[in-house]
Amino acid sequence: MARIFACFLVALLVACHVDAATLEYRWTVEWVDYNMDNLFTRKAIGINGQWPIPAVVGDFGDTLVVHVTNKLEEATSLHFHGLFQNGTNYYDGAVMVTECGVPPGGSFTYRVELKQAGTYWIHSHSKSQTADGMRMPLVIRDPHEHYQYDDEIIMPLQDWFQEPAPVLMKQFNDPDPHIRFRPIIPYAVIGGSCANSKRLNFVAGKTYRIRLANIGSSFDFHFSIDAHPLRVIEVDGVMVREHLTHGVTVSPGQRVSVLVTALDSSESNYLFHSDMYTDLLEMPKYNPLNFTGTIEYSSVAKTRHVRGSTWTCVLDLDLEPLDREPIMEPDTRVTLNAYSGIFSDQSFRHSFNNISYLAPEVPTVLTALTTGDMAMDPEIYGRRSNTHVLKHLDVVEVQINNYDYYSHPFHLHGHVFQIIETGSIREGKIHSKSALDIPVKRDTVVVRGGSYAIVRFRADNPGVWLFHCHIDFHIMLGLQMTFVEAPDKLQQQMKAGLPDMHRENCIAQGIKTTGNAAGRKGLDMGKINAELPTPYPDQFESYYPPSGWELISYIIHGNKDNVESIASPSHSSS
To answer: What is the rounded distance in angstroms from the CA atom of residue 421 to the CA atom of residue 435?
Structure first.
């Protein structure tokens, strides 16, 4: 049925259907006050005076046009997480990678074609703005939906801190472990409501699609509903064969859709659980943090508490995509070793292959477009961007070895990848699990501490694409790298040039728009490679987790000996 021209206001965000397939928004990005259930009030980055920011919903084939005005004191951007941006790499939103960012007081228009149905989200890709609230779900409905259901519920899962992100960043960046591991107690915003207050209305016998999206900055959520089994049908925009479970874990950046059929009786209400796993300290009091809401069949019914509900989760390698793409054989292989530790600038950092990412002085996409044949040489992008140049249509295998004790949800821009294998790298505990013949595809894979994962993707999308941990603070501490994919093809693709506003925003901020990573010619990098901090090998922190109680003993009683023993050479990775 044709949609008629209409402009309407939804939750204070102006969306105009200027024609049958265009959704147009005008967003002012600004600080707003958010009251966390009368526990505390703090500033959040909202849109048009509102936070949490409501979901954006469109249909497959629509065009999303967002006019952004920046009222922050620093540059901002929009990243459309999970969308491939094929042919529009300059709208990917990664500051100093695919754009310079929208300057304070400036504006920019993103024009994004919605060519992928599924559950996605939108967030800033500038500094730690995602952690401070610049995030919202994005749902693209499929007119030819494979699964049938009566209604859908969009359920963003968000961690939230009393302290603003820059304060937390200073703590996490500190070389002193008793400062770095000082406990922070996160709160939760579930489905747009303060934790424990969310109610989902069910009608007996109906089937619901619940779109879970972890749009938080740091922690996993495990979602389940008492007495209601879940059927997984989508992960990260990829439809999968129905998989029965009692619960699903959703890490930062990930999305999962489940079908839930309501019970036949409305005599009782039930609890749903969104349990947060901090994965930072072994502190039973804070891990997990249990948050609940209500499945409401009737406003007058009592809530039935189900004792001993089964706790289960779904393994990626047990899922099978509906498109049944077989395992791809690799043409090239990349190994990424993830470490964290103290670097030569006396700060705590994360790294891939001993390189802790620092932004170049020229956005990487502009280097790829302005350096001619030299764009095929990874050295042109500078060591600090940790760049791998890929050939067009090669199948790329990436093995991620996590020598850290943190879990890392690794996200790839511009693609989904097949998950081929996962396993342990712990000494004496080597085991692995391989994919089905038809491996699941995601854009975000979790690699637990002391574990590895092997993923594969086809380099069929010329552009500059980040690969990074999606814990916001780990991104800021350097756990990201760059794939420059078929820069020769990209130059041909972008012959018509970039949108005028793209370069204008660079010029407004004094950012160079041509040349290598330093804005120079050839491989002359000036000082930027020399300024790259280097790790102290004997101060890496390995996958042996610290004892939370030992750390707390140090914090409370000043007993530093216990803490220093945690990072001793016997627990270090070289």
So the answer is: 6
H or E element, residue 474: helix 472-476
Tokens of 470: 């999606």
Report which of residues 463 and 287 the model is more confident about: 463
How many CB atoms are located within 10 Å of the residue 388 CB? 17
Assigned token pair, 572 = 């270090």
- Enclosing H/E stretch for 454: strand 451-458
10 Å CB burial of residue 570 (0-12, 13-18, 19+) is: exposed
Q: What is the C-alpha separation between 249 and 473, in angstroms, rounded?
A: 20
Q: Which residues are within 8 A (CB) of 416 and not within 5 positions of it... i.e. 6 or more apart? A: 236, 237, 238, 441, 442, 443, 457
DSSP string of 393-420, one letter each residue: T-EEEEEEEE-SSS-EEEEETT--EEEE
Torsion angle of C-alpha atoms 403, 404, 407, 408, degrees rounded to 10: -80
Q: What's the pLDDT band for 312 if we cut at 50, 70, 90?
A: confident
Q: To the nearest whole percent, how much of the chain has pLDDT over 90?
A: 74
The 10 Å CB-count burial string (b at 16+, else e) for 88-105 is: bbbbbbbbbbbbbbbbee
Q: How confident is the model at residue 4 (pLDDT cuts 50, 70, 90)?
A: very low
Residues in the chain: 574
- DSSP labels for 99-154? B--BPTT-EEEEEEE----EEEEEE--STTTTTTT-EEEEEEE-TT-SS--SEEEE
> What's the whole-model pTM score?
0.91
Distance CA 373, CA 400 (A): 30
Tokens 């591991």 correspond to 181
Burial group, residue 269, by CB count within 10 angstroms (0-12, 13-18, 19+):
buried
Tokens 């992960």 label which residue?
Answer: 235
**Residue 126 contacts residue 95 (beta carbons within 8 Å):** yes
Tokens of 265: 């009786």
Cα–Cα dist 389/373, whole Å: 12
3-state secondary structure of 179: helix
Contact 447, 254 (CB under 8 A): no
Terminal alpha carbon distance of the chain: 62
Using the predicted structure, report yes or no on whether residue 558 has a pLDDT greater than 90.
Answer: no
- Find, among 536, 542, 517, the residue nearest to 451 by Cα: 542
Given a contact cutoff of 8 angstroms between Cβ atoms, the answer to whether 387 and 378 are in contact is: yes
Q: How far is CA 2 from CA 5, 21, 141, in A?
A: 10, 10, 16
What is the torsional sign of CA 462, 467, 473, 479? negative
Would you tell me how many other CB atoms lie within 10 Å of the CB of residue 8? Answer: 8
Other beta carbons within 10 angstroms of residue 129's beta carbon come to 23
Query: To 5 degrees, how large is the angle CA 339–CA 342–CA 345?
Result: 125
Identify which has the larger pLDDT, 3 or 130: 130
Q: Are 221 and 278 in contact (CB under 8 A)?
A: no
Which residue in the block uniquely carries the two structure tokens 């997984």?
Answer: 232
* Euclidean distance between CA atoms 370 and 355, whole angstroms: 25
